[in-house]
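Write out this protein's structure.
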Amino acid sequence: MSYNIREEMEKIDHHKTKRYFEEVISSYENQNFRSAIVMLYSVVICDLIYKLSDLRDIHNDQKAEKVLNDLNTDKDENPVSPQWENDLIEKAFREVKILENDVYSHILALKNDRNLSAHPVVSSIEILYEPTEELVKSHIRNMLDGLLKKKPIFSKQVFVPFLMEIARVKNEFSSDEKLKTYLNSKYINYFNEELTEYVFKNLWKFVFKKKGENEDKNRKVNYNVLLILLEQNQDLLEQLVKKESELFSDFIDEKKIVSKLINLLALFPNIFKELKTHAQQIIRNRVKENNKYKYLAHFLFPSVKEHFEKLDSESYEFEYINSVTPYVQYILFKQDEIKFLKKLAIKHDCLEEFYDLMISQHIHSQFFNNADFTFNYCVAPYYKNFNKEQFEKLLKGINGNPQCYKRNDFKSDYKIIKDEVCKHLEEGFEANYQNIF
């Protein structure tokens, strides 16, 4: 796809930068390539100042304020010296860190070509440097994509105000999605990769490694923000966990904290394999001890299919207590747990195994109310996707469990699925299921 400079120009963040950039475009389109290079460099310098000013004025960034104060002092002391431009680029990169490494290198390359374009070289055959159209377009694209279209980036000093703001607004929003929108607009959109890693690492400590009144009070919202960062920067942050595995493998082994960690690993399973062996073993033990964690723990298995099979094997046990209760049911999925498992099945292309698990939940019901629930949430929403073998499994299981076929709602529930059953099974199949028919 071709790169349309005018279209990309509309994405420039600062309105003054966009206005000045018009002159760059005009020079480029009229093939005044030297002028385009010189003006582009001037626009970059202006944009850096605007970004620092916004950080100072809107976000109270003290590093940005110090850099601007230092530059003003230097200009007052040496009004004709261009050194302040060099200092601006260096300090924006090294102190305030609003420039990524590659963008910093691109600006230095632009600065070199700007010097060649702006100053005659007496000793050269061609006194004035002649940049090519391709070189100019490359500089324009690098500056647009790397700097001009981006918002100013915070420094690491933003972490404490960020943490305080999370605590302040934790009850302001009706959903995590609205919280995400707010935090993206005010903070996260201004993070570069380095700052994202820094905030994530320190927020992780507040969620999983620190105890205290404030930590406990804000643990839930801090955890939600941790998920937001992971969702938006998954590859970057999973690599960070891999590089600093020891730090992320240290957590407080208490139920309220471990439960959040297991939830996080269920959403981002690659993180589990990057943890140290001792941390993995603690998590395995806690999952083994608590059935409430088991539906989440697919990260313990080579595949989601094996996870479903393990869930099924641990969900019930045959124990013929009396004529109407053949099973003890250890795991009965809740509605939100079923939704999670379905999403997992869709993502990993194992819906057939998910349907098997849902059928098993119903046919191994221990009580009438369990059977009512599992029909409504494990069978009724999915039966139209069952195959012949699954319908046979369903009918055989119902036929062998009085908790299914003797419950009050059984006949009306069966009418819901009867037409679909008849499509898959041969005529006369009813004879095999006398408790049902």
